[in-house]
Predict the 3D structure of the following.
Amino acid sequence: MPESVDVSAPGTVSGFGAAPGFGAVPERGAASGYGAASEFGAVALPEIRVEWPEALAPALRDSVVEAHSLDREELVAALPGLWRAVDSALDLAGPGTLVAESVRHDAYEGWQVAALPRYDLDGRIRPRGRRDGTQHGAPQLRDRRALVRALVGAVAERPCLDLRDALQMLDVFAGSFPPGLDAVCRRLLGHELRQGVAAGLAPLHEALDRRAPGGVSALCYRESAVGSRKAKGDPATDNEDTSGALAGPSGVLRCAVFDGVTGDGDGSGGTAARAALEQAVRRWRLEEAASGRGGAGGDAAPGDPVPGEAFRPGELIAELDAAVGRATAEGSAAAVLATVRPDGTASVVSVGDAEAWLIRPVRVPANEIPYAAWKLTPAHTGFAERLRVTADAEGEESQLVSFLGGGTARWAHRTFRVAPGDLLLLASDGATEPERDRWFGAVLAELTAQLDASGRPTAPALAAALVQRAEALGGWDNATALVCAVGEAKD
């Protein structure tokens, strides 16, 4: 039995059979007739009935959140199948025919795209004309926005309200969303996609799925600056950021950035950051020593980490939190720590608003930026907490709700894979200062491409450029950037 929908006015769906929640039809919907109107009116409202010849799959959010027919973490990897369905839908119905609820998924049948067709004035579906070439079949901005809303709404804690809401959630919760989703959505909105969605996003998906064919090595480079407007004339306390790295015989690279927080400028934030780094280095050395001893035997002390033992980010954060509490009663710190292993596995753990980003080369035509970037960490701020429950969240972007030194630090943990050519960025919030109407991932990709083309060593040049950029944007905060360059394993 075909499903149907009655449209009583342009852009309004009055019913949708057994497919609840389907949203607005394209604005270009036209009248199918005026019925038995008894009076002439200045405004004519159409009545259109859309019949679906087959059953509709659940909307994407229902499939992910309620039916669990598509695992949340596997969403990005499954998207190439959706793009092929989108291209087919736009080829049949034409551009401008998608809404957020058009994206549907079934555990057995896979992806389905329910495109709402365009209509002629006689009420019949207006098919795509023969003169509509590939360029005319490319998705319009409304199609792109609908796809972004559908994707973000499928993984967010609450339904996505509009495009602005979707982009805010991508920025704030990127580390808790499937990795790379922010890069996918931004490319959807920013790329021309003249050859179709599948072709336009294929280079990014290839990059997202890239793995190291063999082992990897990693080197760290760091730059840090006070910020001219943050400087108070005391070099000992002006810069409350600190960072460090340790690479031992095991080939594991461990690194971290700590951003000290103090209320009255007394330097207690710097004390907190340094205490956290000292504890992190102490733990790193124990882990490295344990790997050299080959297990819990030998000289291993009770409680020392041992090779093969599962990494417990909660224990690490508890150690750092306790170290900060012992060092200062006033100061606190945001933190981001990363581990890169010789087999290409990596992980980050973060508290507060310090950030981690992965920057990766992308195989694209010569006229496109050959890098992509995606965020690996969410933000623990007052704004983030409000955004979890309402799209009307405002302010409190820099007010931390979780930090080292508070005794109850909330943390985020992410594991991922790296490949030769990658750059892993750890940064304090001063070094990731946003620009108006520009996504920081696009800034990173463009800046990396420029530095690469200049012939300078890309990783150290990127760390320096980010600190210089922070000063150029006003120098309002300490800025620290630590960049890990991933290469092929050394013989």
Observations:
- Residues 4-35, 295-310 have pLDDT under 50 and may be disordered.
